[in-house]
């Protein structure tokens, strides 16, 4: 795809609509036994020789205390040689080898290898005796397989064994590699693409790839080394396939999964993945073209979710995506250097000097012109990530992120002494992020404090029940029990991106259980939407309810913003007046309000709102580690709409203008009061309809099937749906965008599921036909008895459909 075409898709396809890659086209029915020509073999042998020269075997290391203990162990085991391959002795191992014994064995191999390399003679004989004894007794084969999430063991134990290879002769080298290969369950490299798709594991890629590469490259049997290196390449490519949802790692919208959901924090696996893709470039072992395209799509996606920076520092995404590490786990785990490596990999697989498409992104994300020949890219626009589910709106030096949980996508991950108050981490949040550091976003910036001083009730944009007792906000009222915050029944959450605008919507009913009940139920539920266009966001909320046996002190609120005040902060302005620290204001429903926060974000709340509470002062709260970790103080500016205690059928609306000034916000507030910007046409439980008047764009958030609509051309839908429409000035041309962010999950097994498609059918007022030349989308048009047009299409995996029609 040419760069200009890719850029043209950016505002509505996450900048990642390279193509809908099929899952089975990477080494399908893979076999490393495929016959190669004599010339192919010679090329690969030459490349193998270069690999061994460039990537030398690791050297063992040890200290004298370790050496003395290891030599003593050899004596105690009374090792005696039976023949050149067999050694007997007093075996301390029963049928099974324990995890600790495995650690000790690997360590002893490393230590004896160091002594053998340094001293030779008796030390070398002790090393050979010990290693041959392990082979004779099949000790390594009897070791338990280390969990890939056990980062210490799975990285250290194989590394200790493999550090001895440089001291081994070819026979022992082959035997040790075979034993470690088995320990790593490396035969998965030989699985077919379809089999691999169900076994991709982020931890395995991050922790095990370095060991696999050593085993493959340094096998003394050249023929086997070539086969294993070919399988290694196949594995790198095969693991980029889009796996069933719930499984690790890559998904069609570019998100990366771990712990059964989108999890940016764990995508440091990309680092190892791309490093070894880079090692194979320029050789016949290079990865597949489709694998590269999927990998570059994933990397671009994670960068699109974050602010820009001229370096790897201060490149962060929204707290709603932080997983178990609120405010501290927001950085992108992929370096500038690796980005450059990936660009080179792209050039290699595409047969060009470098991938100009990816280079254009690099120049944009790093604010550089390093790749001078790459066309300039401006990535302002809206991006949808419905496997998150999230919407991201980028403009200038800021971005807005909207997110909400579903039955399968958790919004907060609460661990032992970690993220103890993360229940509301993405409860329909709307966060505004600015470039230049967390303090500029109003986020807690002191990592040592673990966000003590942040009001955990008030994630920006969220709708929550405010706890008055912090202990009540932790699962089972302690600092240890785990919890993943999901919805109880709802799956309609996500976004639709289109040209210069986008729409996010979510229906949510809060789950209080995780296996067993973890919280006093508040039965919180809501519907909300955000329409983003022209650097502004208009937010609606309806059907806000909460009920239960909880305290009457716990109010339900929609939290507009919370901003920690620092030296980076400006003034807090309310209706043109600078608000002083230590103050609180309550604005009654009959008064409209506009505000500019200390981070330069503007808010406008029209008349008819629930009581608006604005606070600017010091607050004391616990850190994310839990109650036992102590409390901290921060000065914060915050505002929320007070819906009352155990409310029913409450609603809200407000406008957000990031990166603004008091003068501009005053002007925009006046325009909105006069309905010259956004017009709310419908704000009911199941239907939100907002029209942006300057461009006559109508956004529909349809939370359920609906009929008898009259706001625009769309008058009915047989399913839940996100739709945007725009008529031309003559009203003879109609452009439509639609998608269903509800992935309609169907369970495969515990924690795993697959998406199912939506048979969408919308009724359009009048008679319409497809515009000439726009036949890319698979749609059908039918006329109904009312003389209207019924548009039908199949929506799958949260992806959008765009249609141009004429009367």
Write the layout of secondary structure elements.
Layout: H1 3-13, H2 38-54, H3 64-76, E1 80-81, E2 87-88, H4 99-119, H5 121-136, H6 139-142, H7 151-162, H8 170-183, H9 193-197, H10 202-217, H11 222-238, E3 257-258, E4 261-262, H12 269-280, H13 289-304, H14 336-350, H15 356-365, E5 381-385, E6 390-395, E7 398-403, E8 412-414, E9 429-434, E10 463-465, E11 483-485, E12 493-498, E13 501-509, E14 513-514, E15 516-517, E16 525-533, E17 536-545, E18 556-564, E19 572-574, E20 577-579, E21 583-587, E22 593-596, E23 602-605, E24 611-623, E25 626-644, E26 650-657, H16 662-673, E27 678-683, E28 687-692, E29 697-702, E30 714-717, E31 721-727, E32 733-739, E33 746-749, E34 752-754, E35 758-764, E36 769-770, E37 779-783, E38 789-795, E39 801-806
Helix pairs in contact: 2-11, 3-4, 4-5, 4-7, 7-10, 10-11, 10-12, 12-14, 13-14, 14-15
Description of the structure:
By secondary structure, this protein is α+β, with helices and mostly antiparallel strands. The protein is built from 16 helices and 39 strands. Strand 16 (525-533) and strand 17 (536-545) form a beta hairpin. Helix 13 packs antiparallel against helix 14. It is globular, with a radius of gyration of 30 Å.
């Amino acid at each position: 795809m040419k760069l200009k075409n890719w850029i043209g898709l950016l505002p509505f396809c996450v900048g990642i609509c390279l193509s809908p890659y099929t899952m089975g086209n990477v080494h399908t029915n893979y076999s490393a036994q495929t016959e190669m020509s004599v010339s192919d073999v010679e090329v690969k042998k030459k490349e193998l020789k270069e690999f061994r020269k460039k990537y030398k075997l690791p050297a063992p290391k040890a200290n004298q205390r370790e050496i003395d203990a290891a030599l003593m162990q050899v004596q105690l085991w009374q090792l005696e040689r039976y023949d050149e391959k067999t050694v007997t002795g007093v075996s301390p191992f029963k049928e099974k080898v324990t995890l600790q014994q495995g650690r000790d064995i690997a360590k002893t191999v490393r230590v004896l290898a160091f002594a053998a390399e340094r001293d030779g003679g008796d030390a070398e004989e002790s090393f050979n005796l010990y290693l041959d004894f392990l082979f004779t007794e099949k000790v390594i084969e009897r070791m338990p397989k280390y969990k890939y999430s056990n980062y210490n063991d799975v990285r250290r134990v194989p590394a200790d064994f493999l550090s001895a290879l440089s001291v081994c002769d070819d026979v022992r080298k082959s035997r040790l590699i075979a034993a470690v290969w088995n320990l790593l369950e490396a035969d998965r490299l030989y699985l077919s693409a379809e089999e691999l798709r169900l076994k991709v594991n982020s931890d395995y890629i991050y922790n095990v790839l370095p060991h696999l590469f050593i085993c493959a490259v340094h096998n003394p049997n050249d023929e086997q080394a070539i086969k294993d290196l070919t399988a290694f390449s196949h594995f790198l490519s095969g693991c980029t396939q889009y796996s069933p949802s719930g499984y690790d790692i890559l998904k069609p919208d570019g998100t990366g999964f771990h712990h059964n959901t989108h999890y940016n924090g764990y995508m440091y696996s990309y680092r190892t993945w791309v490093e070894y893709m880079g090692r194979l470039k320029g050789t016949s072992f290079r990865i597949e073209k489709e694998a590269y395209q999927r990998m570059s799509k994933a990397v671009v996606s994670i960068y699109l979710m974050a602010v820009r920076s001229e370096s790897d520092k201060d490149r962060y995404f929204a707290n709603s995506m932080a997983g178990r590490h609120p405010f501290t786990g927001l950085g992108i785990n992929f370096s500038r250097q690796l980005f450059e490596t990936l660009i080179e990999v792209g050039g290699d697989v595409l047969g060009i000097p470098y991938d100009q498409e990816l280079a254009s992104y690099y120049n944009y994300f790093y604010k550089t012109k390093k790749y001078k020949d790459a066309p300039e890219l401006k990535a302002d626009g809206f991006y949808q990530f419905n496997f998150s589910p999230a919407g991201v709106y980028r403009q200038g030096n800021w971005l807005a992120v909207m997110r909400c949980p579903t039955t399968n996508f958790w919004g907060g991950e609460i661990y032992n002494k970690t993220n103890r108050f993360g229940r509301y981490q993405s409860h329909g949040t709307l966060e505004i992020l600015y470039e230049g550091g967390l303090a500029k976003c109003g986020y807690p910036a002191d990592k040592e404090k673990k966000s003590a001083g942040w009001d955990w009730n008030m994630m920006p944009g969220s709708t929550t029940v405010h706890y008055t007792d912090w202990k009540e906000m932790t699962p089972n009222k302690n600092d240890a029990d785990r919890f993943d915050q999901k919805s109880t029944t709802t799956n309609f959450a996500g976004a639709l991106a289109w040209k210069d605008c986008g729409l996010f919507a979510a229906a949510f009913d809060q789950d209080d259980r995780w296996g067993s009940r973890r919280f006093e139920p508040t039965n919180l539920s809501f519907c909300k939407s955000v329409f983003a266009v022209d650097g502004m966001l208009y937010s609606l909320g309806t059907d806000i309810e909460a009920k239960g046996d909880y305290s009457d002190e716990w109010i339900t609120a929609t939290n507009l913003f919370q901003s920690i005040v620092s030296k980076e902060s400006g003034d807090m302005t309310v209706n043109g007046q600078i608000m002083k620290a230590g103050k609180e204001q309550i604005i009654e429903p009959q008064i409209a309000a506009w505000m500019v926060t200390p981070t330069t974000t503007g808010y406008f709340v029209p008349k008819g709102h629930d009581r608006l509470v604005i606070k600017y002062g010091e607050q004391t709260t616990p850190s994310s580690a839990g109650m036992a970790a102590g409390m901290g103080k921060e000065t914060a500016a915050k505002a929320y709409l007070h819906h009352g205690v155990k409310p029913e059928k409450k609603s809200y609306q407000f406008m957000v203008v990031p990166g603004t000034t008091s003068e501009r916000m005053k002007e925009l507030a006046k325009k909105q009061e006069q309905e010259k910007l956004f017009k709310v046409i419908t704000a009911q439980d199941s239907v939100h309809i907002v029209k942006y008047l300057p461009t006559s764009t109508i956004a529909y958030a349809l939370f359920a099937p609906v009929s008898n609509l009259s706001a625009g051309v769309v008058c009915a839908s047989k399913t839940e749906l996100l739709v945007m429409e725009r008529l031309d000035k003559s009203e003879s041309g109609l452009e439509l965008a639609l998608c269903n962010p509800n992935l309609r999950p169907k369970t495969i097994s515990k924690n795993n599921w697959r998406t199912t498609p939506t048979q969408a059918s919308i009724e359009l007022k009048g008679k319409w036909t497809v515009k000439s030349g726009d036949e890319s989308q698979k749609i059908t048009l039918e006329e109904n008895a009312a003389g209207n047009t019924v548009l039908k299409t199949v929506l799958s995996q949260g992806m959008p459909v765009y249609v141009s029609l004429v009367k």
